[in-house]
Design brief:
Layout lengths: L1 H22 L3 H4 L5 H7 L4 E5 L6 H8 L6 H11 L13 E5 L3 H8 L3
Antiparallel strand pairs: 1-2
């Protein structure tokens, strides 16, 4: 009887640890993400919302909506500013994301951003 009780207790402890670690419910993991810098820089980058279709990538959409082609690094940096916590390598079909626009009027506002 004791053996079953300790086995069940061990399984419950392992399960709760797994759920706690996989869902990110620990407060230490959530407090490390800065929120305010992304909001302040977001205003400096003009953007266009685009719904992802099959075969779309960050670079293909950026090339399609812009006449002037930016560097890959700049496109990735601006996409990360506009869409925090989104991996640009794993865009989901049917979801809408903000993609940076590089027009003549927005060039001066985005080049001065640190």
């Amino acid at each position: 009887m004791k053996k079953r009780f300790f086995t069940i207790l061990f399984i419950v402890a392992c399960w709760t640890s797994y759920v706690d670690l996989s869902s990110g419910s620990l407060p230490a993991g959530q407090a490390a993400q800065p929120v305010t810098p992304a909001v302040s820089e977001k205003a400096a980058v003009s953007y266009q919302r685009v719904t992802i279709a099959p075969g779309d990538t960050l670079l293909s959409i950026t090339e399609r909506i812009n006449e002037k082609q930016p560097s890959i690094e700049k496109a990735l940096k601006d996409f990360a500013i506009l869409n925090p916590s989104v991996n640009p390598n794993h865009l989901q079909i049917g979801k809408t994301y903000a993609f940076p626009r590089y027009d003549k009027s927005s060039d001066s506002s985005t080049t001065g951003t640190p």
